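ingest -> validate -> predict -> emit
validate: passed (alphabet ok, no gaps, 133 aa)
predict: started
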Amino acid sequence: MTDKLTVDQGREIGNAFVQAYYNIFDNGPRENLSNFYVPDSETSQMSFEGNLVKGQQAIVEKLRNLSFQKVTRMITAVDTQTTVENGIMIYVIGRLQTDSDPAHSFTQSFYLRNSNNTWFILNESFRLLVHNI
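emit:
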């Protein structure tokens, strides 16, 4: 993709990405999330609750080994921005419940880049909004 992305294109791609990603994450199998990450050793990075994981295989292994099975998610907002490098920043806020645990708010961000007409996650960060005060 060599043309500069418009704001509307970024929003459309970002919203479609969020729907596809969470559909696989929530309904499985989580192994299929590998298609969202750059297929090499360490280009993609994910910060999950403050722990950094690098590389497609390590990220998918982390997501596959999460202790919960059932996920119920409500997306409150999805904000997108196009970047100067023709990427897309996506910011998601919402609530999720895992198994029979109480629901918690969460925030997640993604930085997507296009390669050969396929969008990949380069950077990702996830946090539950739980305050232990």
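The mean pLDDT is 93.
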